[in-house]
UniProtKB/TrEMBL annotation:
Organism of provenance: Xenorhabdus bovienii str. kraussei Quebec
Name of the featured protein: Similar to salicylate-5-hydroxylase large oxygenase component
Residue stretches making up the Rieske domain: 37-152
A GO term for molecular function: iron ion binding
Keywords tagged on the record: 2Fe-2S, Iron, Iron-sulfur, Metal-binding, NAD, Oxidoreductase
Amino acid sequence: MPLQWSKKGTRRVPSKIYTCNHVYEKELSNIFRGNTWNYVGLSSEVEKPGDYIQTFVGDVPVILIRDRKGTLNVFVNRCPHRGAKICHNQKGNTKVLVCPYHEWAFSLEGKFSGMPFRKGIDGKGGMSEFFHSTEHSLQALNVTERHGVVFASFSYDIEPFDTYLDPVMLSYFDRVCSGRKLKVIGKMQHKVNCNWKLQIENVKDPFHAALLHSFFKNFGIWRSDQKTSVKVCSSGKSSVLVSTASFTKAETEKKAEKKAELSLLDQRLIDHQREYEHGTGAIMTLFPNLILLQQLNCLAMRHVIPDGTDSCIKIWTFFGYEDEPEELTKRRLLQANLLGPSGLVTIDDNEILAVTQEGAKGSPDSEIVLEAGVGESSEDHMMTESAIRGFYKYYRGVMNLE
Ligand SMILES: [Fe+2]
């Protein structure tokens, strides 16, 4: 039965979109294999010719690799012979990609470059006259890079990245990824027991941060009385939450006194060195599944990989700038303790998203309610769900769910 979307538009979302296999399959084809730029990594992760990392576009395993000319290539991690996964290491450097099954080999440009026993053994057997090596390249994706951040698409008919993000989104992307060389300072990976969209919604939802996250509230990083705004791009698909913390020591201590005398033994966890204009935190969601996070001095790419209807994998790439002082890098690493699988803040989300998924599963005919604020555009306060409604405005179009 086709999925029915409520007449109330984006103010309601049917719970089935978090649980239905048919919807999930359609998302993989219409979104992740459609006209989307999907985050695949930082170019500094594959700096030298032959450097590669494994990652995903949607649920499709891919390899990001730099060839001898310095070009970045993204290939489906699948041997065109019998379909086995070619690359098994998370990262490395190689001169050639070789499938472990029958040792078909491919160049760094993805072209078939050889195989054992092509002409048979002792003059017997081998590949037939119908085998043409040029027909058996690795499947290559369309690749683009902006300021050291690499995106790939199954579509070769997609608009350039700088119009894929509208000017406001692009300005927030460039705010952190400005062209200064990025350096990776850590990686984390974990599974969240919820549909990938619940994870994306979570960071489009500004007011949960001041309610659910006790750590944020108690130590002044994100509270309801702070200056917060929500920027939504014109199509609705991408957005950014911008907040300004009141984290000076005096302020934090004053608030902490009021709140059961909580204080940090190590204040460095939230000590912040102002780096950017417009807020002390900006959490951007780039359609479909990248979260570009700046919270205090912590910078991270959070890549949300769909993993069936009721699970997603989050890969966190923490980064800084190559030319920054070591002290700042250390501060970023320290603040990574707020995030990740057991971070003082993210742990709340991991748990609440899992029980939200259970709610969808237990009541498949229900709807979720998005009545905070009106419409799907930018707002200069936090008591709004406009960024989530914007996401679903775009989502319904691309999924043909009218
Ligand atoms: Fe949260």
